[in-house]
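Q: What would this chain look like folded?
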Amino acid sequence: MTTYAALHLTASGPSDGVLTLTVEGALDYDTSGYFTDHVGRALMDHSGIRVLRLDCSALSGVDSMGLSTLLGLRRRLDTSGASLRIVERSARLDRLLTITGTFDYLVGAEEAAQKEPESAGAASVAEAESGSVSGDEQQARQRR
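A: My prediction, written as structure tokens:
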């Protein structure tokens, strides 16, 4: 396990071309340089990686510099022909990625499409509860 202030990274694998890095702590201004260096070393140590899997189950926060770091990592992996999978994300991280318009790019359009029906259904319920949608319109939406 490697540690820098409030960030811990643990590598496991690679297995079948997949390297998993578990991220624990905050990915922010103070830790983003360390994160980039550590990920770079891990990729050099394990040549032939096709997928870098970031397990974010213990990620406590991401600021704008952390988000920029993730975007840079994605670009770096694209250039090398590898892909990024950000898994075990918190609702807070998903919200950040959605608000900033980076969800599809960092997580994938397939996952965004899977989440969309849930979001649309929740919005319909919220509108109906607030009275902003008529009963007929709500029924029409449910049939779609």
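The beta strands are 2-4, 7-15, 18-27, 51-62, 83-87.
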